UniProtKB/TrEMBL annotation:
Phylogenetic classification of the source organism: Bacteria, Bacillati, Bacillota, Bacilli, Bacillales
Residue ranges of domain HTH araC/xylS-type in the record: 180-279
Keywords on record: DNA-binding, Transcription, Transcription regulation
CDD domains documented for this protein: cupin_MmsR-like_N
The protein's name: AraC family transcriptional regulator
Organism of origin: Paenibacillus campinasensis
């Protein structure tokens, strides 16, 4: 049987409770029948089990947990947990709080009603918790920021590695999520000379399929949507940034050919970029009646 171990490191930064804060992290090879609770905590406390067996209890459910399991204790939740007598847990833990803590935990798949996730054994959650503990032990000023970064990686890893049954067909909500991903991609990348092919490759689907579901959901092809997005953004720049030339505005929205940009702008708004800007300038300089 492995020898009992226990170590913990607290956040060296004296930070106020903001949007997200990591409080401490630790690890333990628990002794047989090591028990805590029933008790409540006023912060979120995640455990990632590396080996061994044990039982985690909430007010409504009992979970028999082993390697690859993670359980998240929510603030105010009455819980208890105990290691197995013959094969006790080895686990790592991380505590966190903040205004966004609940939202982040829920996004990763945890809730008070479902506080347990089973991740695949190649999950990096224990590694990231160890990194937080190491950073806190270093006492560096950067430890607080590094810990928040690791916490985001932990929650992202939980979401990525949750074991779900394979889907033979894509459900409607998943189609909608994929279209939202496409829109988010184009909204964040429109200023660059990005292509629809690049977007499809980054999302892992072929162009024909994505074009079909995108048009079904939005009524537009991805090419048309991206062009409209760029022209709409150019209209805002022409209005808000009068010091920029038409060529600079065109480049700022990812259209490297000013003549093509001018033609498309006129197609959308019935006037050239220069005429639009002059009309806006005329309105702003007119005296109040």
């Amino acid at each position: 049987m492995n020898a009992q171990t226990y170590s913990v490191a607290s956040n060296p930064a004296q930070t106020e409770n903001g949007t997200l804060r990591v409080l401490f992290a630790g690890e333990s090879q628990t002794p047989p029948k090591h028990a805590l609770g029933p008790k409540i905590y006023d912060y979120y406390l995640m455990h990632a089990i590396e080996s061994g067996q044990g039982v985690f209890r909430t007010e409504t459910d009992v979970y028999h947990l082993g390697p690859g399991d993670c359980f998240l204790i929510h603030p105010g939740q009455l819980v208890s947990y105990v290691s197995d007598e013959g094969n006790p847990w080895r686990y790592r833990w991380v505590a966190f709080d903040g205004e966004l803590a609940g939202e982040q935990a829920k996004a990763a798949g945890f809730s008070p009603e479902h506080p347990v996730l089973h991740v695949t054994l190649d999950s990096q959650v224990p590694h990231y918790i160890a990194m937080i503990q190491s950073r806190f032990n270093s006492r560096r000023e950067s430890a607080h920021m590094a810990a928040i970064g690791c916490l985001h990686l932990i929650l992202a890893d939980c979401l990525d590695h949750v074991e779900r049954p394979a889907q033979l067909t894509m459900a409607e909500p998943q189609i909608q999520r994929t279209v939202k991903q496409m829109i988010n991609y184009m909204t964040s990348q429109y200023a660059h000379p990005v292509s629809i092919e690049q977007m499809c490759a980054s999302l892992g689907y072929n162009r024909a399929y994505l074009s079909r579901i995108f048009k079904k959901e939005t009524g537009m092809t991805p090419v048309a949507y991206l062009l409209k997005l760029r022209i709409d953004q150019s209209k805002r720049l022409l209005r808000e940034r009068p010091e920029l030339s038409v060529e600079q505005v065109s480049a700022s929205v990812g259209l490297t050919d000013p003549l093509y940009f001018s033609r498309q702008f006129k197609r959308f708004f019935g006037q050239s970029p220069t005429s639009y800007r002059q009309k806006i300038a005329g309105r702003s300089s007119s005296p109040d009646k």
